[in-house]
Amino acid sequence: MQIKSLAFTAASVASFILASVHEARKLVREGAIGKFRGLQISLSTPTDYITSRPDHWANKLPGGVFGESGPHVIYMTLAFINPVQKVSVEAKKLMEYPWSPFEDYRIELIGETAISSIKMMYATKQWMARVEIMGEEGNVDRRSGGNEPCQVSSRGAETGADRDVDPERKRSTPEELGGERA
Hints:
Blueprint: H1 2-30, E1 36-46, H2 65-78, E2 86-92, E3 104-110, E4 115-124, E5 128-135, E6 138-143, E7 151-155, E8 162-164
Parallel strand pairs: 1-4
Antiparallel strand pairs: 1-5, 2-3, 3-4, 5-6, 6-7, 7-8
């Protein structure tokens, strides 16, 4: 029963991240946050979902869990930064599971005018997902845990006052965004 619940949560996190990227792409196309300037993606997957389970299929991949989650955050980044000019990856071993090469990953993907910073953590007891898109005139900040509208903020250039960009905006579905893939 617990594994089924966790699998649903994993699908929910993946769906949340993808919907966040679709929403952000739409806002960038519409000019709601100005010119795209950067991206941050943070993910945390509970230890008891993958890391502590030697027979989990992700632990059998050549890169371990990085081979499962890494491609997803990379293709999401490519929706905003393409081509990537430089890549750096740092990893740290935090736990005593010999089948898990690392449990903390940091990835930087650098493009001509923007950087994507990615954090993937597999040494906690909770699920967490956050996507933050920074624009020249505002940002999109989405966090897992609810169906709240996408948080979009902008700073008025002349007054310096914070203002919401369309505060009544509801979260778009991928279908409403034209079904595009990130």
